[in-house]
Every structure is written in C-alpha cells, then in structure tokens.
Design brief:
By secondary structure, this protein is α/β, with parallel strands linked by helices. It contains nine helices and 14 strands. The chain folds into two domains: 5-123, Rossmann fold (3-Layer(aba) Sandwich), CATH 3.40.50; 127-278, Dihydrodipicolinate Reductase, domain 2 (2-Layer Sandwich). It has helices at 14-23, 39-49, 58-62, 79-88, 103-116, 130-140, 176-192, 280-291, 302-319, and strands at 5-10, 29-35, 53-55, 69-72, 92-96, 120-123, 147-155, 197-204, 210-218, 223-229, 238-242, 246-249, 258-263, 266-271. It has an eight-stranded mixed beta sheet with strand order 8-9-10-7-11-12-13-14, with helices on one face. It has a six-stranded parallel beta sheet with strand order 3-2-1-4-5-6, with helices on both faces. The model has no long low-confidence stretch (mean pLDDT 97).
C-alpha cells in the first residue's frame, strides 16, 4: 500500500464534514474522493476540501482505484448495504455507529468483511478519545477499586425537528437509542462488559419514534443508570464510582478533554486536550490496522460491535422499539 492512506467518504452531512476536517490533521492520510447522490451537494462539500474525485454515485466511489478505505456516514438504515458493496469492491470500511441497525445486519457485514479479507470497524470515535482511554486504564489497574456505580446520559432537545427527518422517523431507524443512547451504553460496556440484567423503559413520539429511554444495567458489584432522550437538554457529565475513588468525566463526556479524579476526598482535575474535534484518533487507529494488515481493531473489535448491538437489541425488545423495515 502507498505511504499515504487514501480515503473516500459517502454521506456528506455534518459528521462527514467534521471527519474530513480532522482527516486533514492526520499525517499520511488524504481525502481523495467524495460521493453524494446529489452532485450539487457533493460540489458544495468540495468547496472546503478540494478533493480529486467527486461523484454523484456511491458505486463509482467504490470502484475508484484511488480509494483505499471508505468512511460511511449515511443514515443508519443505509449502513449495511453500502458497507457490503464497498467491501465487495475490495475497500476497507469505517462505518458510522451503529454499524448495523440490529444483530442480523451486523452479522452480514462481518461475514462480508471476512469473505473479502478487508478491514471493517464501527466508528465509535469516543473509544479512541484520550480521556476515555485513560479512564479505561484507571479501571483496569484498580485505581478506582471495584466499580460500584456508573451514571451516563446523552440528551438534547429535538422535538422541533422535521418529522420526516432522521431523528423522528422510524423508517430511518429514528429515535434517541441508536443515535445517542449508544454512547452511555458503550461507556458502561467498555468498563464493565455485558450486563447480567437489563431493565429499560421508553417513551415515543407521535411518529412512532422512541424519544426517551431509561436503562438500568445490573452487574455483580455494580449498577449503571443510563439515559438518552430527545425531549430536553442534559449537561452530559458521566460518573464512574468505585470503592477507592471516583471519576467525573468533563461534559460533554463523549467528546471530552478531561476528567476529575476524586480520592480520599481530594479532587484533582486532569486535562487531556484533543487534536481537532477528536476524530483524528479513530482515523489513526484505522491507519495503524491497515498498515499492519489487521482486519479489525484490538481496541474496538468485531466482537465488541456484536456485543454492543446485542445489548441494543435487548433494550429494543423490552421497550418495543421497532422499525417498519424490519417486519
């Protein structure tokens, strides 16, 4: 493979723009192609990035020989189909979370990656955030003692959004759980693993989309209280509390730049500034894996994605969150 790893992006929304801005900060990575089903949208996106290849067809990008890896930033419902087509064209793939809407979809994606011998990773960018990685180390080295309690949420007001838009439309896998609830669930899973028991409740919009979900995860020694919602704002500070100490992750915790460590009633704030908006770290992980011929990340593996989607499926089953296209 050439020294520079060459990226293509499909789905040119806000997240794709932030990702592309951070990609420009990563050495030996280059954005060489973008695609939208609207050429006007692609050309407008390209005013900032000036890439070599601009397409109005995703398939054209997948067959572009200049592209090594594709970042998929389309709505949830399109992840599986486009990821499979990209991998069948021999491209490595970084796919926005949730990688699949359910376990069935994810299983098909993983099978395609294996068949085509290509790299595939779910773009859970918070996993690679320096603060989150440090807190994972603090838990692993027993600095907090036995973890007894986790609280994490993700919420913002979105009931004024268009009903046919991504967040409030069940046909687009809308709702809070898959879009933002995945973050507090991810954090708890990262630190404590798969829960022994899950209790969940949800509320729904008139469109049928879920707009509030509250969850309790039971572990041998711990409870996790988690929440996602589109009905109000939250400060979004997360807490991890153990028998020896506690960590309070600075808001907004999923994109944080530091934390406060509390031990024996003494507090210390640790600042860990990010490069760019924070997508740089997952980009570097993708580069490292591809350069070393690893088909999955050791930090966020295929098994991690499977276990996470199984937790989400469990919550959806309990609360009655369903999407018309799954029937």
């Amino acid at each position: 493979m050439a020294k520079t790893i060459r990226w293509g992006i499909i789905g040119l929304g806000n997240i794709a723009q932030k990702f592309a801005q951070d990609l420009a900060l990563v050495k030996e990575g280059e954005l060489v192609a973008i695609a939208s089903r609207s050429m006007d949208k692609a050309l407008n996106f390209n005013k900032e990035f000036n890439v070599a290849h601009v397409f109005d067809s995703y398939q054209q990008l997948f067959t572009c020989e200049a592209v090594d890896v594709v970042y998929i930033a389309t709505p949830h419902t399109e992840h599986m189909n486009w990821a499979i087509l990209a991998m069948e064209s021999g491209k490595h793939v970084l796919c926005e979370k949730p990688m699949g809407v359910n376990r069935k979809q994810l299983t098909q994606m993983l099978a395609t990656a294996k068949k085509n011998n290509v790299f595939l990773m779910e773009a859970l960018w918070s996993r690679f955030n320096p603060t989150i990685r440090k807190i994972k180390e603090l838990v692993a080295d027993d600095s907090l003692g036995t973890i007894e309690y986790i609280h994490a949420d993700f919420a913002f007001y979105a009931l004024d959004r268009a009903k046919e838009g991504r967040l409030l439309n069940p046909n687009l896998a809308g709702g809070s759980l898959l879009d933002i609830g995945i973050y507090p669930i991810f954090l708890t899973y990262l630190l404590l693993g798969v829960p022994q028991k899950i209790t969940a409740r949800a509320s729904f919009h008139e469109t049928g989309a879920e707009i509030q979900t509250s969850m309790i995860f039971d572990y041998k020694n711990a409870h996790a209280l988690l929440y996602s919602g589109l009905t109000s704002n939250s400060r979004m500070q997360a807490t991890i509390s153990g028998s020896k100490g506690a960590v309070f992750i600075d808001p907004r915790w999923h994109e944080t730049e530091g934390y406060t460590f509390l031990n024996n009633k003494e507090e210390e704030h640790i600042s860990l500034p990010k490069v760019g908006k924070g997508y740089t770290y997952e980009i570097e992980e993708v580069h490292d894996c591809i350069r070393n011929n690893r088909l999955q990340s050791e930090l966020w593996s295929h098994t991690n994605s499977l276990e996470l989607i199984e937790i989400l499926d469990n919550i959806r089953y309990q609360t009655g969150i369903s999407f018309p296209f799954e029937v």
